[in-house]
Each structure stands twice: as C-alpha cells, then as structure tokens.
Write a structure and sequence with these properties.
The chain is α+β, with helices and mostly antiparallel strands. The chain folds into 3 domains: 5-89; 94-204; 214-383, Dna Topoisomerase Vi A Subunit, Chain: A, domain 2, CATH 3.40.1360.10. The protein is 43% helix and 13% strand. It has 15 helices and 14 strands. It has helices at 5-22, 42-57, 82-89, 94-109, 116-127, 139-152, 161-169, 174-177, 179-189, 198-204, 264-273, 288-300, 314-327, 338-344, 363-371; strands at residues 31-33, 61-65, 74-79, 214-217, 220-223, 229-231, 238-240, 249-250, 258-261, 278-281, 306-309, 332-333, 346-348, 376-378. The chain has a 6-stranded mixed sheet, with helices on both faces. β5 (220-223) and β6 form a beta hairpin. α12 (288-300) packs across α13 (314-327). It is elongated. It starts with a helix and ends in a 16-residue tail after the last strand.
C-alpha cells in the first residue's frame, strides 16, 4: 500500500523527534533527510510539503532547501524545538513517559534493597525511547513487572513456577510473558552474573520447573522414595534427579579431591580424561540442588580439597564464589590464574562486578584484583585441556 504524502512527512518528523530523545544531551544540531513521498502524484507531493512546512510554521523545525535550480526542493529537516515538535505531532516525549514509568516502579518497590539500580537502568533506556528488556514505559505494566520481581523475593522456596506467577502477578502466564524484564531486575537484586540464564534464576529462587538432572562422578549414592538406590559412580558420569540430592550418602573411600566445573564440555573432559576425584557439573551458575550437593560432599569428606574450574571472567569468578559459600570452607581456583589469562585471554575493560572480592587475601582476591583493573584479559575454560589439580603446576 502506498503511503500518502502527509504520512510520509509525519514519519520524517517522528524520526527527528526520536533522534532528539535518543540524543538528549547532544550539542550538535539534529537533522534528518527529508526524502520524498512514495506517491509521485501532485496531491501527495503537496500534502507532504504542507505537513513539513506546517511544522516549520509552528516553530518546531527548520527546512533546508537546495541551491540553484533545487532551491524549491526540501532536502533536510533541522530540529528547532523538540517539545514543540512533539506537540505538533501529538506525541508524548520519551522523557515524560520514562518519568511516569519510573514513578510506577518506585511506587511498588518501596525502596527495597537491590531494586533501585534496575529502575535507574530502565529509566535511562525509556528516556531514549527504547524498551528495557522488551518492557515499554507503560506505567501499569511496569508496576506489575516490578511488583512481581519484588514479590518473588518473598515466595517460599519450593513453590511451583506457575503458582509463584499467580501469587506475584495474578496470572499463571505472567512470568513467562515478561520473564526477561523480571529476571533483569532479579539479577541486580540477587547480585547474580549478567549472563545467568532465566532458568537458573528461577532455580536460585527455588521455583519448581522440573529441574535439570544433577550430573556428577563421585563415590556417593542416592535413594528415591521407594528406596531404589541411584549411584553417582557411573562412567563417565551419572545423572541424578535433583529431588534426591538431599539424601546423598558416601559410597566408598574418600576421593582425593572434589571439583566443580562450570561448563559442559569441560565437565565431560574432566570426567573422561582424569580418572580420580569427585566431579560436579554446576550448570553455569549453580542452582540450589548443585549447591546443596557441594555442601553435602564438603561435609562428607572434610579433608578432601575442593577446587572450582570455570571461565576466567566476572561470571566465572562469581560462580566460584557461590561454590565457596555452598561448601562452607575454602575452595581453590583451578586453571583460573592471572598468568593463564595473560597467555590465553582477550583484552577487556575492567570488570567492576568482582571488585567486592578483591580485598581477599587468597587466589579469589588475586584474580578479582586483576579482573577489576585496567588491561585485564578473559577467556573461556574450554580453551584448556582438563588437568588433575593435584598434579598441575598452576
């Protein structure tokens, strides 16, 4: 369908207003190409010109025309007053919409710890006319999304995912439809890595959604409700229903070490290429069943050293810190050193998310100081072959 001349001119003016909202602090003059209407008919051309000249008469824009035999051709449209242009177009400016949405978010969160940063981040996006994690600056929807995120922090551990959705938002499908924005809020509130997946966030909160099996190789056994034994000694590894983790019991001699591994490929390599040691796959950021298993093994074998092997980046170090908390005793980093980062890594900007760990007087602190400083480098653990931690010279 051919767009009329008046509609074509309106699109040009809207594009100019959007540019003004995206570049609110710009000192340069904002202009856009005037183009021309798709319909070449005289009536369409006249409507196009009348619409642009009307905005100029309103004091919203200035029209730049060509030179010489093109002096009657409108070539560019320059912004004069964004507020007048918005009024001429009948559009509410992005900053006004953002302010209303931010007020709605603050209203339902009530200054709760950890949520202010998400509100500020969202407001900055909305003020530029951009949705935040697919969340537009619609006050009612923003109010519901932030209320749901805040409510999830109080939902009982073990609540079914859809029941939690009803409790916090009144709809079984709300968290599925708006999970991106809800998870973005929760990442900040729970101090989780930026790259953690939504499914891992739900698991961290203890929301039940048929959790993934816990993968491991260790001298342990589990028992289901019927008393059927499930071994963790499978080769190359075993998969266990997460509901059985609480009943983990020793099944053999104490292993030489306990190791948690962040990524799937490296976990497989460790199990297949290094014969000794207990090995647990963390599924990225470890969900509650994995953290529970780590804590259980740390108690079963108090003299076995615990290692964590993951990516050398902010997420990898925060995952290692989560493992350390779950273990309740010291954890050593495996193949996660400054020297390896300098040798294999790609240069990055300072990773401020790990600055809180930098004061420690251990290998965690050393790596955190490196990653939060200038000229740090990061790399994924799959770049390295599995190594026995008791034999490696790191």
């Amino acid at each position: 369908m051919t767009v009329s001349g008046g509609e074509s001119a309106r699109k040009v003016l809207v594009r100019l207003l959007e540019s003004a909202d995206r570049n609110a602090t710009a000192t340069r003059t904002l202009t856009v190409a005037a183009g021309s209407p798709q319909d070449p008919s005289p009536a369409s051309q006249r409507a196009w010109r009348d619409r642009l000249e009307g905005a100029e008469r309103a004091g919203a824009v200035a029209l730049a025309r060509g030179a010489g035999n093109r002096r009657d051709v409108i070539e560019r449209v320059r912004l004069v007053d964004a507020d007048l242009l918005a009024r001429d177009l009948g559009i509410t400016r992005a900053g006004t919409l953002a302010a209303a949405a931010v007020a709605a978010a603050r209203e339902v969160t009530g200054g709760r710890d950890g949520l202010d940063q998400a509100i500020e981040d969202a407001g900055a996006k909305w003020a530029k006319g951009v949705d935040w994690y697919r969340l537009p600056p619609e006050p009612d929807l923003v109010r519901n999304v932030f209320a749901a995120a805040a409510g999830l922090l109080d939902v009982a551990f073990g609540t079914h995912f859809r029941s939690a959705s009803v409790q916090t938002a009144g709809s079984t499908k709300f968290l599925e439809r708006h999970g991106g924005a809800v998870c973005a809020i929760l990442r900040g509130a729970l101090a989780l890595p930026d790259d953690i997946r939504p499914a891992e966030i739900w698991e961290t909160l203890g929301l039940v959604r048929f959790g993934h099996p816990v993968c491991l190789r260790a001298p342990v056994r589990f028992a289901d409700a019927a008393g059927i034994q499930v071994s963790g000694r499978g080769v190359p590894w075993s998969a266990v229903n997460p509901d059985l983790v609480a009943g983990c019991a020793a099944d053999g001699d104490e292993p030489e070490f306990i190791m948690t591994v962040e990524n799937w490929t490296s976990f497989n390599g460790q199990c297949r290429e290094v014969e000794r040691g207990a090995v647990i796959y963390t599924h990225g950021f470890p969900p509650p069943p994995v953290r529970m298993l780590v804590g259980r093994m740390a108690t079963l074998w108090p003299h076995a050293p615990i290692y964590h092997w993951g990516d050398v980046d902010a997420g990898g170090l925060l995952i290692a810190d989560s493992i350390r908390e779950a273990a309740g005793r010291p954890v050593r980093l495996h193949l996660m050193t400054v020297a390896l980062a300098e040798r294999h890594g790609t240069k990055r900007r300072p990773l401020s998310r790990v600055a809180g760990i930098a004061s420690r007087d251990d290998d965690f602190g050393e790596l955190a100081r490196y990653l939060s400083g200038d000229s740090c480098r990061t790399f994924e653990q799959e770049m390295l072959r599995p190594v026995d931690p008791l034999e490696s010279a790191q």
